[in-house]
Amino acid sequence: MKLSKILIGSAIAGGILLCVGGVGGYQYVSKLNNQLDTTALPNTTFEGISLDGKNKKDIQAIINQRVTELDQKSLTYIFQNDKQTYTWKDLGVNYKEKDIIDKIFKEQEGNVMNRYKMRKQAENGELKRDYKLTPQLNATAYETFIKDKYNETLKNPVNAELSIEGSTVNVSQSQNGEKIDKGKLNSLTNEAITTGKSDVTLPVTFIKPERCTEDIQKMGIKEVIAEYSTPMAGRNGNQSFNVNKSANTLSGVIVAPDETFSFNGRVGVTDAAHGYKSAAVYSQGKVIQSAGGGVCQVSSTLYSAALRADLGIVSRSNHSMPVNYLPLGQDAAVADYGPDLKFKNNTGNHIYIQAFSNGGSITTRIFGTNTGKNVEVSSQVISRTSDKITAVTYKKVTQNGEVISNGQISKSVYKSAPKE
């Protein structure tokens, strides 16, 4: 048996070689090469369609026809009750159809012996080849298609809000927004094209709000850590108006850790152009009428609260003459483009300033995280003459029962009485 196979193989090979040895052999090889270079072998199919004997032009026409058919296939995008259907051509699907012709004829290459065997095997059905298109999204084309679609926000995110009711801190619940996840939609579309799915449910991604509930909670604004009130008895209508206006502007400011707060920076200019009314103010040792009279009571009340919160006082000036709503040495004068009250938030957490008037008094509260400190503020007049009063102010701070600081924090000098 082995010997007969060898003899048959030798006979075939010998026959070919004999043919090759003459003119007829040359013509045979030339014809074989030409056929395999220009036409498809028997039992070669493209998606089930026979390509036997077809040249490149014919094969390309068959492929183009199939591409046209596939271009009309559709994919439906579904979102809730809405459906939008697009053809594969709309989506930018390509098929690498040129690769098929190249592959067909690349696989028919070889030397004369290999090509002879290849043809014989194809003719008797031992060699069968089937080629298919590979549909996939063209990234650039799909990007153009989807660019102006599904960009709208489906649900706007809701920021968490901090609010104060009386002395209670409230933090509202933040909510994520929603939009179509176009990156994931690209992947799902590509998957649907390659697997033959007819629809895709649009994927949704969340839009994180700028301020989450957790973000505000981490700020540490939890409770009142210091407050102070001063009486408004004897205030006329314009003074009360200015107190209320500046208190309303002041209230609601949040000061970050290590940030320096400026009263003038927050409240702004307090002249008539900014809505403030004319009332009594101190100026160069005299009492005059000027816009913004009464605002200093708000800054002084805030200063007293800041002392009791043990904040770092950066800038504070006393009035030129005593005021009747605070002990000497505990006031804080402010003026447009002049003295300012500044303090640094040294608590390690954010603080929130609240200011309000109930008609009989003005109150400022500082909210933050309780440090366990207890602060005592006291003042003492150390000198009084016919034209000058000098007072010193002390602050004692205890924490967990231990005194951590105790001493003089300021010295204030006042004129005894206004000039005539």
UniProtKB/TrEMBL annotation:
Superkingdom in the source lineage: Bacteria
Residue ranges of every copy of the YoaR-like putative peptidoglycan binding domain listed in the record: 86-198
Coiled-coil blocks: none
Name this polypeptide is given: Vancomycin resistance protein
Species per Swiss-Prot/TrEMBL record: Bacillus thuringiensis subsp. medellin
